[in-house]
Amino acid sequence: MSRTRTGLSRRLCIVIGLVGLVIGGAGGAAFASWHSPGSGTGTGATGTLGAVSVIALVGGPSSSLLPGGTSDVVLEVSNSNSYAVTLTSIAMTSGGSISASNGSCTTSGVSITFPSSPSISVPAGSSKVDLAGAASMSLASQNACQGNTFTLPVTVTFQK
Fold first, then answer.
1. Which domain holds residue 96?
2. What is the 8-class DSSP label of residue 63?
3. Cα angle 12-13-19, degrees, rounded to a multiple of 5
4. How many structural domains compose the chain?
5. Contact predicate 126/75, CB 8 Å
6. Could you report the per-residue pLDDT of 49-84, keeping only the tens digit for each?
7. I need a surface site. Which of 48, 78, 124, 131 has the fewest CB within 10 A?
């Protein structure tokens, strides 16, 4: 009977030793994966910025344009993206001119000064951006310009 016990004990020791070796080997592999140096490459992609349309109007919610005074410029923005975009530049379109809703207003005296380095977050969907005091009207404006809405051709740049 002692011979059977010795054979059983030996087999049990061998099995326990193999299990220990397997567990120890896995532990060594995990240790090596956390502490070994390596290198590699990766790629990423961004989506394409969707359409953002803008209509620029003179006269804001808190100001009207009067001769010798200033008023806000309101940008009506339609952002078709599912995320906010940032307005990073705005300027009058080259060769464009400010037009009045009344054709009799030929000398409006309206001029625009946009911020030089804007960083304005515009949410997804429709919204308005108010540029306080960006429009001014000279004293040389015609009487026919009273009560007009002035439309501005603008070039705007947005970033994701």
1. 52-159
2. B
3. 90
4. 1
5. no
6. 788 888 777 766 666 778 888 888 888 999 998 999
7. 48
